[in-house]
Amino acid sequence: MSFTAEIWKKNAALFETIRTMPFNQELADGTLSKERFRHYMIQDAHYLVAFGRALAVAAAKADNADEVVQFANAAHGAVVVERSLHKDFMEQFGVSPATFSSTPLSPTTHHYSNFLLANAWGASYPVALAGLLPCFWIYAEIGRDIIGRAAKDNPYDSWIATYAGDEFHTAVRAVIATVDRVASVASEETRRDMHIAYTHAAKLEWMFWDSAYRLEQWPV
Q1: Does residue 219 fall inside a structural domain?
Q2: Most buried among 72, 152, 172, 203, using CB within 10 Å?
Q3: What's the CATH number where 61 sits?
Q4: Which residue has the higher pLDDT, 61 or 101?
Q5: pLDDT tens digit sequence for 74-109
Q6: Is the model's pTM score more than 0.70?
Q7: Contact between residue 135 and residue 121 where contact means Cβ atoms under 8 Å apart
């Protein structure tokens, strides 16, 4: 069994909890409120800046030239390509640039962003990658799951199509292959730390969608 197959199996119950959570269930059947989706979009656009920075750090730590390029390109995609998609959604759902810029990171977005950056800077290259993997892999699998059961004329069709699409899945498979490569030559201690980083980030994926569903704000 590959390292990523092992890590997916270990976290299968957590993925099922994410797959069946109210945000993703309602996204699939098209009943998710615009207010909740707007909250998600704004926070995700903030999050992608931190994700892009963490990917850039991973690129700097890469131990071969191909992976420097792989993660530098992924950082570019997170900040430029995906944020462009968010801009289109924001226009569609009535979020002005002023509203976006004046909306602070929610507690969960703040937590997740800081975890990724701390893990990317402070951990080894393999552990940094393991912490970044859930955002790729879980999104790809959620996109694939939702497109298979999405309601017709779903207002969130373009979001679903992006994360279920071949281009995104090709990039995700490449990241999985890189994680398997670095894990294959890592020590048992490093592999253990990779498991911990992956699971923590996967839990934060659940928390992120849940926080959008709850329209999370700072309590004080």
Answers
A1: no
A2: 172
A3: 1.20.910.10
A4: 61
A5: 999 888 866 676 777 788 878 888 888 899 999 999
A6: yes
A7: no
